[in-house]
UniProtKB/TrEMBL annotation:
Family that this chain belongs to: Belongs to the myoviridae tail sheath protein family.
Record lineage: Bacteria, Pseudomonadati, Pseudomonadota, Alphaproteobacteria, Hyphomicrobiales
InterPro entries: Tail_sheath_C (IPR020287), Tail_sheath_structural (IPR052042)
Protein name: Phage tail sheath family protein
Tail sheath protein C-terminal domain sequence ranges: 539-644
A UniProt-annotated Pfam family: Phage_sheath_1C
């Protein structure tokens, strides 16, 4: 048996369970107002381009797009996004839509056939228009032969495929039907499938046409051209009208599906700008669409911002009452394990004045100009007036931010970034008293407070600046710090990218006072961009006030939970405890080598105890496995002890603080 006190050579088994793999703490979750995108669905994005594909461009009514840009500008790599809006029946978010007509029906042309909607709610959909054009034209002719109402021999099968809709024409008579099967070797079309299980109501035999005479066959499909503000942004070519066809319009352009429990390694595909729904069961009447003489404008879209409320942000966190829409807002992040940072900048929303685009004046026309009369520019596209959210009161902002803190405290694996309300920094006569007052509302070692706001160049108009809450920039600084050094380094004292200035100038004396209160001040010094000059949490507990300490604990909790998954259901014996202890010891040694812990030796930096001293016989009888891990944070020089274990096939992790003189023993 292995005995560290007795010299000799010992055999010690390597742990069978794997290590935790990569544990990232640089991934934030943002909840807020966006131009477009799914409501109350967490979406993982890897860059600003992917964000804009799902959620659109920056808008005056929200800070979300600006905060996400700030995160990626400061070396961020991955973020989770949750868009919120009101669900009120009258004033809530709604998709813009229109109706596409069939070209021919028993009742005549122009019968509503398909419904098209914007891919997500919002007034942005009112700027969409759609043109319907015939799809790829393919034609053939039947070879006169025997009178077979089910099979047609044709001159060529090129360009046709099973389950395509065709128009059969013979003189003045015509029939619309579906080609079920194609025999390329013998050049035959079958109107009924050879497999009886594939027969559908729309599979019809020839009616009113003589197969002994030539029949013209034309393949039918449609191409949709989608425009935004009169500019083509997408095309859907050769859409089929047959439900079994792989390019059936309502199937190919269906509403995007976002899983309730999204996986970390799966990126949601960028949605097409519109979705299609069939208005009725097609039955036997499959019909082509009527081409549009002019673009068909979508209408009826609403942003759902005028009636936005606190509950739209907080969702159902802590409530057992279900709703028609399920989890909403912040509560949707309960199902997403990856984020380690939480920010809701739109809790402090201050809508900006709308940017009005105008054409340059046209010079007076000179009748003697040899070039002739210049062509006047086309008029600007009609842009709907966007909705404006109401400005939340301080009490409402506190309710949202308190929900953030409670969410992080209940999960114990992420930190909330708290923004000051505009009222706390806008009044120059108050100075820093507004920040002091807001800070006193919280006491948590799972929340960090950053102030003041930051001024940035608006990406939509370089002549304009916009002042933003700092949480997006702060989240990017967390990512930058992790990439450049590691979680043991404070996310501070580096130039903040995409920040021109701060909204409030804070003196050295005021900075010292705010730092003692746990407010991380952002200041602009001579010769450098704004920097975060603080790394404290909003807690009165001096032992847990440093951000790196809390983030180290979060890292270990996440890593240990992954490690323990490989030990659940194994026999609770001495061998299991030894293998678990060795696995964790190897992991802790790797972190110590990276500088994550204080101490010149591994013995000074950490200790792993998983033996009979902390696993009693009653613990084993009750299915409990306990492993104590003590480590010395880089700052300050206190020790944090994590107790991890398995109880009844459930993984548990608890923490406690202790000061140990002379190192870890």
């Amino acid at each position: 048996m292995y005995n560290p006190e007795t010299p000799g050579v010992y055999w010690r088994p390597l742990p069978s369970a794997q290590g935790p793999g990569e544990v990232r703490l640089d991934v934030p979750a943002f909840v807020g107002i966006a131009e477009r995108g799914p409501l109350d669905k967490p979406v993982r994005v890897r860059n600003l381009r992917e964000f804009e594909q799902h959620f659109g461009e920056p808008i005056d009514a929200g800070f979300l797009a600006y905060a996400v840009r700030a995160f990626f500008e400061n070396e961020g790599q991955i973020a989770w996004i949750v868009r919120v809006a009101s669900r009120d029946a009258a004033t809530g978010a709604r998709e813009a839509g229109a109706t596409l007509l069939a070209s021919a029906t028993p009742a005549g042309p122009g019968t509503p056939y398909w419904s098209i909607r914007a891919s997500s709610p919002g007034s942005w959909g009112n700027r969409l228009s759609v043109a319907v054009q015939p799809g790829r034209r393919t034609a053939a002719r039947s070879v006169p032969g025997i009178r077979d109402a089910q099979r047609l021999k044709v001159t060529s099968v090129a360009g046709f495929e099973p389950d395509c809709l065709v128009r059969l024409t013979q003189g003045l008579s015509s029939q619309i039907c579906t080609i079920a099967d194609i025999d390329a070797a013998s050049s035959h079309f079958s109107l009924l499938p050879s497999d009886p299980r594939r027969i559908r109501p729309w599979h019809q035999l020839l009616a009113g046409l003589d197969p002994a005479l030539p029949i013209d066959i034309e393949r039918l499909s449609a191409t949709l051209i989608v425009k935004l503000d009169m500019r083509v942004i997408a095309e859907a070519r050769d859409l089929s009208f047959v439900p079994d066809h792989p390019r059936y319009g309502p199937t190919l352009l269906a509403l995007p599906v976002y899983p309730a429990r999204p996986e970390h390694d799966r990126i949601a595909a960028a949605p097409f700008s519109i979705v299609i729904e069939a208005l009725d069961d097609p039955g036997t009447a499959l019909l082509p669409l009527m081409p549009t003489a002019q673009d068909l404008e979508l209408e009826g879209g609403q942003d759902g911002l005028s009636s936005l409320s606190v509950s739209d942000f907080t969702g159902l966190a802590g409530s057992a009452v279900p709703t028609h829409y399920g989890l909403r807002g912040l509560a949707t992040l309960e199902n997403v394990a990856e984020p380690a940072i939480l920010a809701i900048p739109d809790a402090c929303i201050i809508p900006a004045p709308e940017i009005v685009l105008e054409r340059l004046p046209v010079a007076a026309i000179d009748p003697c100009d040899p070039c002739g009369i210049p062509q006047l520019p086309a008029p600007l596209a009609k842009r709907p007036v966007p909705e404006t959210p109401q400005i939340f009161s301080d009490e409402e902002i506190f309710a949202i931010q308190q929900a953030m803190v409670e969410h992080c405290e209940s999960r114990r694996d992420r930190i909330a970034l708290i923004d000051p309300p505009w009222t706390a920094i806008a009044d120059k006569t108050l100075g820093i008293r507004g920040l002091e007052t807001w800070r006193q509302l919280f006491d948590s070692n799972f929340a960090a407070f950053y102030a003041p706001w930051l001024k940035v160049v608006d990406p939509r108009d370089s002549r304009r600046t916009r002042t933003l809450p700092p949480s997006g920039h702060a989240a990017g600084q967390y990512a930058m710090s992790d990439h450049l050094g590691g979680i043991q380094f404070a996310p501070a004292n580096r130039d903040i990218a995409w920040a021109q200035a701060t909204s409030l100038t804070i003196s050295d004396a005021a900075h010292g006072l705010l730092n003692r209160l746990g407010i991380n001040v952002i200041r602009t010094g001579q010769g450098h961009a704004p920097r975060i000059l603080g790394s404290r949490l909003m807690t009165s507990d001096a032992q847990l006030r440093d951000i790196p300490v809390r983030r180290t604990i979060i890292l270990l909790r996440r890593a240990f939970e992954r490690i323990l998954r490989g030990f659940v259901f194994e026999p609770n014996a001495e061998d299991l405890r030894e293998r678990l202890g060795l696995t964790i010891e190897i992991f802790m040694t790797g972190l110590w080598n990276q500088g994550a812990f204080a101490g010149t030796t591994a013995q000074e930096a950490f200790a792993v105890i998983c033996d009979d001293t902390n696993n009693s016989a009653p613990d084993g009888d009750n299915g409990r496995l306990i492993c104590d891990v003590a480590f010395a944070p880089v700052h300050p020089l206190e020790f944090v002890v994590l107790r991890i274990g398995v109880a009844g096939n459930e993984i548990e992790t608890n923490e406690r603080l202790m000061s140990i003189a002379g190192g870890v023993s």
